[in-house]
Design goal:
The protein has 341 residues and is an alpha/beta fold. It is built from 13 helices and 15 strands. The chain is 34% helix and 25% strand. Bound molecules: zinc ion.
Length: 341
């Protein structure tokens, strides 16, 4: 039996309440959490789940954003897709391995990927995987058959689309779709396909938000991507506050690796600065994607031990609000170790 004891200021339970605790991990599960008497310099946070990423476009890292979004990333002829087609499989796998390793080192132990390139594309990502980092792959162009889900770039309301979605659902796959990223045109068609997950929702109206909340469809927001690619230029896009107030389930993602670093601490800091989201909500968004793979992403007894250990000595001495300081003072550079089940 593998057993380990760690101590520190941990963000515990549903509300991520900071508590000085001692945690016993047994066979990859959090077995016991007890209050510790002495104050701790080590901080313990639940690991992140990056709920939307396109990992293979790592090969186009920091490509110049010098044309409209569609010309950069829309299939089949956007700059990104040409690049993916021209890149040898071994290079794509290597790039994906590198990004998984980067995500792990910055506290992300689970992610949902939109994988292009059909079945081969999905196979390459499976080859690049790390058992410590859980993956939910949304394939397309046949890739969905060997993946956990089907990811549609954008809904156009065609019969082909509808058939592909219903085939995927019949075989038990999750269905995710980008909607409302640059405008409102594709939103109704996306809702009509009854998605399990909506990506972006940057231009959702109050009615769209109501619909997502009432139907319990989680939304993944990717704010840095929206700003970098010109889809947002103010704190009402995406309308995060309205989504949370309406009771939407909101997750955080970093989108295309070619433009945005998949560092969830950086995404969280941006959300905090621009959208003024409460720190508890931010941590809920950054960990909530674990529910897509049947986990809670919380520090609680019985949960898988997906944990980030951090050096909290400096903020720990001065902070009035440890959960906020986690994002505004520590960040990924403060990580000393990640623990996975
Ligand atoms: Zn995307």
């Amino acid at each position: 039996m593998m057993e380990e004891k760690i101590e520190g200021l941990a963000f515990v339970g549903d509300t991520f309440t900071p508590r000085n605790v001692s945690i016993i991990i047994e066979n990859g599960l959090i077995n016991e959490i007890t209050d510790a008497k002495k104050p701790a310099t080590q901080w313990i946070a639940p690991a992140f789940f990056n709920a939307h990423i396109h990992i293979a476009d790592t090969v186009g890292m920091d490509t110049k954003i010098d044309r409209p979004l569609a010309e950069l990333v829309a299939p089949p002829d956007g700059v990104k897709h040409k690049l993916l087609r021209e890149t040898p499989d071994t290079v794509l796998t290597h790039a994906m391995e590198d990004t998984i390793s980067f995500m792990k080192s910055t506290g992300t132990l689970g992610f949902a990927d939109f994988r292009e390139g059909g079945k081969t594309g999905v196979d390459l990502l499976l080859k690049a995987s790390d058992p410590a980092v859980r993956m939910l792959i949304f394939g397309r162009d046949g890739g969905e058959v060997v993946a956990g889900g089907f990811g549609l770039s954008s809904a156009k309301g065609t019969k082909e689309e509808e058939d592909a979605v219903s085939r995927a659902k019949k075989s038990g796959k999750l269905f995710a779709v980008h909607a409302g990223e640059v405008g409102t045109k594709d939103i109704d068609a996306a809702f009509a396909l009854e998605p399990d997950l909506i990506i972006h929702a940057t231009h959702f109206s109050r009615e769209h938000i109501r619909e997502a909340a009432d139907r319990g469809i989680p939304i993944v927001i990717c704010p840095r991507s929206n700003w970098l690619l010109g889809a947002a230029a103010d704190s009402r896009h995406p309308p995060v506050r309205e989504m949370l107030d309406a009771g939407c389930k909101v997750f955080l993602g970093t989108d295309n690796v070619m433009f945005v670093s998949p560092d969830m601490f950086a995404e969280a800091a941006f959300l905090k600065t621009i959208y003024k989201v409460d720190s508890e909500e931010i941590l809920r968004m950054a960990t909530g994607g674990f529910s897509l793979i049947g986990q809670k992403g919380k520090i609680e007894t019985g949960s898988p031990a997906n944990l980030i250990l951090l050096d909290g000595k400096y903020p720990g001495t001065w902070t009035k609000d440890p959960l906020t300081s986690l994002f505004t003072r520590i960040g990924s550079r403060g990580i000393t170790r990640v623990i996975s089940p």
